[in-house]
Amino acid sequence: TGGVTTIDAGFKNTSSCESAITFLDGEKGILRYRGYSIEELAKKSNFVEVSYLLIFGALPTCDELAKFKADIRKQSLVDEDIKKILDGFPKSAHPMGVLSALTSALTAFSPKSVDVDSPEEMYDAIVKIYAKLPVLASWAYRKEEGLPLEYGDNSLGYVENFLKMMFDLPNEVYKPNPVIIKALDKLLILHADHEQNCSTSTVRIAGSSHAGLFASISAGISALWGRLHGGANQAVIEMLEEIKEDGGGYEKYIAKAKDKNDPFRLMGFGHRVYKNFDPRANIIKVAAEEVLADLGIDDPVLDIARGLSTVALEDEYFKSRNLYPNVDFYSGIIYRALGIPIPMFTVMFALGRLPGWIAQWREMRLRKEPIGRPRQLYIGATGRPFIEKEER
Ligand code: SDX
After folding, report:
1. Contacts of 88 (CB under 8 A, 6+ apart)
2. Can you tell which superkingdom this protein's organism belongs to (predicted)?
3. How far apart are CA 341 and CA 371, in angstroms?
4. Pocket residues for ligand 1 (CB within 6 Å)?
5. What per-residue confidence (pLDDT) applies to 364?
6. Which residues on adjacent β-strands are paired with residue 325?
7. pTM (two decimals)
8. Catalytic residue numbers?
């Protein structure tokens, strides 16, 4: 056991690294990116600028931002041969699996992006993945819908261009409503980083072996897919839809969530770090109400979500376990109002989390962190002699 005597399952009480990127205070519900509060950034900044802040550590000057955007535009094409990999997937493939595969495939078209040690070489790999992920994300959606693949329009902003790649039709140009662009930009900011969560820890440990940035991000996408993590935003809407189909009575589901013999969990509730509220959930809840009002959408699941959270927040079981709505509880309601299909919800989370994954990978590599390799407490068989199969 190498002298190890205690297990910390799920690393509930383990710090894996020093980091200067994101600060969380779980008791006070504080979230800051490089010292700036997410409340201020969500109100005053935009996703590309926040991405720059997370990755490089400071809000960019006008020239720095212009150069970053120009470098991204230069990298916004994807090798046409990647489409052959996409063609191999059935339409029923979940877009998170497609995105993870295509992201890892990027390495094959940029072999020099693998073992990069200098900030300059890292910069080249960073703008490549930052520019190409939205294209691949839209292709995963277009494949599922049987639509032609688009490259968008480099003269548009990051979010508007993504929406164009998603929803432009050969016979009808997509003109996104400014409310949708602003709401999506805010959602991406709120998902941009969250210190050492499951998928970020995956990116760090994959990157610690000096696997390339694209392979490390691909590993992070796979970890985010799980319904206990980023996959929860899809699971929340599916749960709310089930409650709606079941007559809208959420009391039964609250009882199921409390029943230890029932594997059902209230999706979108609970958090490893936040023990009073998730500051992102509060902002997203207000944004959901604003977006639905602006777009004149009356989505019954928003009422179910409100009622469910009100009852749960007053229930002793949830209060005693510090269970509150998390970032995933309301986000799906906005994605759906924006016309984004449910299987793409976790892809939206990945798009938002990309700058955080990049920033954490870059910090780990620049600090020359050692390869991640934990120990174990061995509980298996003691030494035993081989037995020929005829004697078994
Ligand atoms: C994200 O880490 C991050 O920062 C993640 C994230 C990010 O930005 O990267 O914030 C994004 O992943 C948000 C979480 C999305 N997941 C869900 O909404 C899925 C539902 N939530 C749970 O599975 C759970 O709350 C977790 C996974 C979020 C946290 O799990 P923990 O910290 O391991 O807590 P636990 O499972 O040990 O639960 C503690 C107790 C248990 O009860 P007891 O054994 O003490 O009696 O609370 C109960 C759990 O059964 N519990 C729930 C519950 N969540 C916890 N009971 C019912 N419904 C729930 N949702």
Report:
1. none
2. Bacteria
3. 38
4. 10, 194, 197, 228-230, 232, 257, 265-273, 321, 323, 326-328
5. 98
6. 269
7. 0.97
8. 271, 328
